[in-house]
Structures are given as C-alpha cells and as structure tokens.
TrEMBL record:
Annotated spans, Disordered: 30-63, 413-446
Compositionally biased tracts (Acidic residues): 33-57
Source species of the chain: Enhygromyxa salina
Gene3D superfamilies: Single-stranded right-handed beta-helix, Pectin lyase-like (2.160.20.10)
Protein name (database record): Uncharacterized protein
The organism's taxonomic lineage, starting at the top: Bacteria, Pseudomonadati, Myxococcota, Polyangia, Nannocystales
Cross-referenced SUPFAM superfamilies: Pectin lyase-like (SSF51126)
Coiled-coil blocks: none
Entry-linked InterPro entries: MIP_CS, Pectin_lyas_fold, Pectin_lyase_fold/virulence
Superkingdom in the source lineage: Bacteria
Length: 446
C-alpha cells in the first residue's frame, strides 16, 4: 500500500480512484484522472469535461459499491477500482444477494430473481421461475408443484407433507386411521375433519365400483385427487350433493367421479377447479354454480342419460368450460343453462343433448372453437344428434367418441392455445401448437 505524504497525497500515483483529502499541493489534484493528460477524465485530451470522472465511456472509478450508481455497473471491483456489473465481481451471485435479496442470481451481467438452476428466491405465492423472464411467478397448474398441488387462486404450492389418504376398503382398521396410506381414513368427511388447510386428500376407489355415499362440505382450501390409476366414485347422501364447495371454500379436484346423487352431484358456491373428472348420471343434475361462485371445468364429462335435469346450471357466478363434453339427457334436459347475470366462457368444448330443443340456454355466454348441435356463431354447428351412436355409451355416460360414427367436424372444431391442457381426459396428447386445429370436447381420437 502507498504511504501518504504530509500534504495528504500518496508518494506514487495509485491506479484507479485517488484523492488528496482536500490538502493543497502541486502534485495533488482534486479531480480523478485516467492518465490521458487531461484533468477531466473524459478521455478526450481536452481541458473541458463533465467532471464526473467516468471517462464518458471509461469505467466509473470507485472505492466502494456506494460510488457505483449506474444500473449497468452497480458494483465496485476493489482491486481495479472501477464499477462493474455482477459478472465482474469475485462472487457474482453473492454480490447480487447482498445488494438485493429478492434478486440473488447473476445472469447475463444482471441481477435477477431466478434461473432454471437457481430458484431459491421463488417462495410463497411466487414459487415458480419463469425462465424466459428470470422472474418468480405463481403456480398455475398442479404439475408445477412436485408431489403437491397448486393453489391456483393464490399461486402457492401446497405443503407436500399435507397429504391424507381415504380408502373405504380398509374398514377393519378405521378406528385407528391416521390418514397415512397404511392407515387411511375410511370416509372423505373424516379426512377433511382431520386434515389441515391446504391438504391433498388422495381418494382410493372402492371394490366393485362402489361409491362413497357422503354429503361432503368443503369450507377451506383442499385438493381431492384420485389415487394413481384409480377412479373413485362419490355419491350424495340424505338428498344432498355429493360435494358442496361452500363460501369461502376452494376445491381442486382431479380424476374423481360423482354419480347417483339425488340432488345435483356437485354444488359450487365458493371456488372450484375441476380437471379430468366425471360428473355423470346424477338424477338430481350434474353441476350447480350459485352464490357468485367460480368454476373452472377442464377435460371433463358432465351430464348423462338422466331425464328432466340439466348437466350444468349456472344461476349466479363465473364459469370457464374448457375442453369438456357436456351432454344433456332426454325430455327437458339441457347440457348448459345459465342466468342472464352469469359470466360464462365456453371454449374447445362439445355440447349436446338428447332433447329436441336447444341443448344450451345461456344468453350472455362467450363461446368459441366449440361444437354444438345448434347454431352458435363462431363455432361449429353439427346439426341435431340423430341418436346416441356418436358416443361409446350414452346410457352409461361414457362420452368417448366412436370413430366413424361422430361428425368429422368435431375433429377440427377446437383450436389449441397457450396454457390449454396438453392431454385429453385419457392422457392422449393434444397438438400443443398455438392455433392448431383440435377435437372439441374432453376426448380426442389419437
């Protein structure tokens, strides 16, 4: 290190930033120079300059990060005495984290929130790294949350330790149930009673396609997921729906079948995201959305061979119906009916009914890229369904398409968009190309 003289200057001109503590002296200068023969530091050899010592293109001189205010070079490299970007520091990530814990990663000379390899800053309601923008965002689908579920309404992933199992086949040990896979609860209601909020309830199917006969009320935030490779069935009890999502409850449901309910099988007063599920052949009707609730229906079969009840009824709320097949029964059975004040969007879906009248009565619906029997502008009109031969078994509410029997226009009625499901209800891949024609409805022929 150079030794300072009595007048405050050092014996030798140091590299980088230097000064004389304001003391006078011929060999001292109160302007930082860059050695080019002019006192301005502008690198042009002229006596005039901007006086900021940054060389007008030369690196800014510094003694600490506080001297570096430029957005492109906010860090001071002590060894060289010049301001640099994060990649110019000894420890780029540590420099970024020290400057701002919310952007702890150095990527491309800039401090960012995250990269594909480093996502430590992505927590809470922004647990996912959007690699394209290097920013943390909320989750939007369950696959983004490893061994967990996405709370789509809030953006956070459920705690992966909050998992409880339901398996009514294991009745012998019901009294000892703790929700583990080895000692599952025997009823869904028991699981809800004992599970913490934001839990995943894994439901196993019963032997012989029997149904869990319960009237389940969801008042918190939960996920009902079918056990891998299984299709559990829920049925209403005491003339109540099988599942009611109350205000302010939120339910994420995947792979569940709701059938044989004397009341509507599924009632939503709160919020529900339903994927890859079957709400079929419920004598009291399929789905009712009311009380200002919210419903997202994706890759689902809804309706069936029931008489004088509607597949989906929306009295008050906001609904998005995407890539789903809605099928009304005979007599006065519509596939979709909604009140004037409802906010309903239908896209890439197949809407039919066995009744003679129109299958949909929804005055303010926004429908696109879907297939109807009736004429709905901007969509595909199939004409009246002559019988039930389009589907594998209308009687059993199996709405898979029969090759060669359904109208070929269904094949291209839909149009795949970003954030649409990548597979159909059976896991068969969709086009996954924006604007590509696709089948309308939950089922597509591979």
């Amino acid at each position: 290190m150079d030794v300072a003289t009595e007048d405050g200057c050092q014996e030798a001109v140091p590299t980088g930033c230097w000064y004389c503590d304001g003391k006078p002296g011929a060999e001292c200068s109160d302007v930082v120079g860059d050695g080019d023969g002019d006192p301005t530091g502008d690198g042009d050899g002229e006596p005039t300059g901007d006086g900021d010592g940054d060389g007008d293109g030369d690196p800014m001189a510094c003694m600490g990060d506080e001297d570096c205010s430029g957005p492109d070079a906010p860090f001071c490299d002590i060894e060289s005495g010049v301001c640099v970007d994060c990649e110019g520091t000894a420890d780029p990530d540590a420099s970024c984290a020290g400057a701002d814990p919310s952007t702890p990663v150095c990527e491309g000379a800039t401090c960012v929130q995250c990269t594909a390899d480093i996502q430590s800053a992505c927590t809470g309601t922004t647990p996912i790294c959007d690699v394209a923008g290097n920013v943390c965002v909320g989750c939007s689908e369950h696959e983004q949350c490893s061994d967990s579920a996405c709370n789509i309404a809030e953006g956070n992933c459920f705690d992966p330790t909050n998992v409880v199992h339901v398996n009514g086949n294991n009745g012998v040990v019901c009294i000892a149930a703790d929700g583990s896979e080895a000692l599952p609860y025997c009823e869904v209601g028991a699981a809800i009673l004992n599970a913490p909020n934001e839990s995943i309830v894994v439901i196993h199917e019963l032997v012989g396609s029997a149904a869990y006969q319960e009237d389940i009320a969801v008042t918190g935030t939960l996920a009902f997921f079918a056990a891998n490779g299984e299709t559990p069935i829920l049925a209403g009890f005491n003339a109540n729906p099988a599942v009611t999502v109350a205000v302010p409850g939120t339910l994420y449901m995947r792979g569940i079948q709701i059938s044989l309910s004397a009341a509507p099988g599924f009632r939503v007063n709160g919020s529900a995201w339903v994927e890859d599920s079957l709400i079929i052949n419920n004598p009291g009707g399929g789905i009712v959305l009311a009380s200002g609730g919210t419903l997202m229906l994706e890759n689902c079969f809804v309706g069936g061979n029931v008489t004088d009840v509607d597949a989906v009824t929306i009295t008050d709320g906001t609904a998005t119906i995407l890539y789903s097949t809605l099928a009304g029964g005979a007599a006065a059975s519509r596939a979709l009916v909604c009140a004037d004040e409802s906010d309903v969007t239908v896209r890439n879906s197949l809407i039919v009914s066995r009744q003679v009248d129109d299958e949909m009565s929804c005055p303010n619906v926004t429908a696109s890229d879907s297939a109807f029997e009736m004429n709905v502008p901007g969509n595909t009109s199939l004409g009246m369904m002559p019988d039930t031969s389009w589907f594998v078994s209308y009687q059993n509410a199996d709405f898979h398409l029969v090759p060669g029997m359904y109208p070929a226009a269904i094949d291209t009625a839909g149009s795949w968009s970003t954030d649409d499901p990548t597979d159909d209800i059976d896991g068969d891949p969709r086009p996954n190309t924006v604007g590509a024609p696709d089948f309308a409805g939950a089922d597509r022929i591979p």
